[in-house]
Amino acid sequence: MDTETRIGVDVGGTFTDVALLTPEGRLVTAKVPSTDDQSVGVVRGIEKACDDAGVDPAEVDAFTHAMTVSVNALLEEDGATTALVTTEGFRDVLEIGRQARPDLYDVTADKPAPLVPRRRRFEVTERATVEGIQTEVDESEVRALVDDIRDAGAESVAVSLLHAYQHPENERVVADVLREELDAPVSSSHEVLAEFREFERTSTTAVDAYVTPAIDSYLGRLESRAADLGVPVPQIMQANGGIAPASTVREHAVTTTLSGPAAGVVGAAATAIDSGDDLTGLVTFDMGGTSSDVSLVRDGEVERTTDAEINGRPIKTPMVDVNTVGAGGGSVAWVDSGDALRVGPRSSGANPGPACYGRGGADPTVTDANVVLGYIGGSSALGGELSLDVDAARDALAGLADEAGLDDALAAARGVYRVANANMTRAIRAVTVERGHDPRRFGLVAFGGAGPMHAAALAESLDIETVVVPRACGVLSAYGLLAADQKHDSVRTLRRPLSGLDAGAVDAAYADLEADTLDDVADPADAAVRRAADLRYVGQSFELTVPVGEPFDAEAVEARFHEAHESAYGYRLDDPVELVNVRATAVVERDPLDVTYRGGGDARKDTREAFFDGAFRETPVYDRDGLDAGATVEGPAILEQHESTVVVPPAWGGTVGADGTLVLTGGGDGE
């Protein structure tokens, strides 16, 4: 049994979630409203969880954290004033991009504006090719740019020179001079992403520079508040699904994008991986207050990608492959110019929040619809803090009904519920059907404050027969923080035909990468390094990543690539295969979680009218934490807990596992 007291805190758009695990295996969860300065809400959450557990914050041995600081900076476009230094003639790479239009048939559609406008993009005379440095950079020219960068008001600087991924000598000189002369962080592309493709490398480096000051400032405040509590310096969840020391994250801020969703997927994998032997994998479904995140776990491994965009900006660092839609509990329902009912992406946020929060919010939201449908009752308390105002929810939906030409608040609530579900169903199809996976062979893991209310309805629409609701479903991202291993990634472009490849040269490149990743590990002796490679058929534009053994075996790697290509696209070719990138990931595994669950007590609370199959039905309401391990539940039923509510439709039933996980099976016509 683990002897540590661990605490994980995940900041969402509406709530800050906390999970605390004691050495005896007792899991305590808490949920508090998020705050404008996220560190304030984090401290409040820690204090609440520790108070509920009877633990002094100074007794906490490990503190792990996920936040939305970097992704918020990108979505709200309020990051640092950033400058870019690049090779002469390549000033407009960020502007040109890939010349792909956001909408193929809309000639007026605008691409997102570059994070760095042209007036803050500067050029230096230098040139490198894939063979080596042709023109060395002149330090005096770089120093001459310093005043221009200062005059531009730059708070951060990105440096991305041509072919610096292969030969970074000139870029090192530029970065060193700027770091010497400027009182501002400098992000260098060969340190951020040593990978070819000029636009994506420059974009990723610009994103790193754009979010670094916000991350550095936030972590400084958080560390100070944590020290005042006596809590350890936090480990930070990265987008790749692994944690890293705060000091490392400050140097690689771009790795924190989507850190919260990544933690949720890790938590889902940790709690639900053994829920069905006949399942191909798991679809993870996290519905929070602002958005819903969908991802896959296959063969026990969380799906990762290096081909992601946030707000139209490519980011090529490894991250958990998450598809996000603007449909959460706080998503606002509205009527568009064609009189169609829409849901999201605008959210009511934490304050004032949905109308039912009783904080002055008047906009109808998905949460208000769930209240009118009876899935959330007047006796419920969200997060154990907020009592619901049912009349306010009904009034908000009645106003929407008038605007949409619907009969009443109930009709509007049904419409909002269906539209929100349709949005989330499309997100699930995007990571399953559109990638060649049959969702019927997957289980659906539902979490987030609102996910378990919608999960069975989504499963029915996709013919999924198994829904897994972890015990800590309302705070599963926080729970995932307790389970996450430490991970550090490194990549290098090494474009070579696989046929006749010098395996020794490849192993030497891997040795360099492994040294880079181990530099970020506190105790390298505890780390295991995993190798991977990006490959493609000669002439293809994009690659597939496959695991690589040690020493490098070209034939084995080629066989894995053919299998991966056939799995992804349904066919394989006899064409020659090209190695493109080599990758290394250093992993320090944490002790597995040992959670005890007792349940017990009087689980049955009361009954209330809830809407199923076109009519209100008297539905039993249970205290989920009162259900014993092994207990069964038949639908219709509603299971309440502080952080979330589980809706079990009439055609479904569930069983409580030994760790408190609820596994629902069934399917039918639904609402």
From TrEMBL:
Residues 597-652 form the Acetophenone carboxylase-like C-terminal domain. It comes from the Archaea. Residues 6-181 form the Hydantoinase/oxoprolinase N-terminal domain. Residues 201-489 form the Hydantoinase A/oxoprolinase domain. Coiled coil: none annotated. It holds the Pfam family Hydant_A_C. Signal peptide: none annotated. This is Hydantoinase/oxoprolinase family protein. It comes from Haloferax chudinovii.
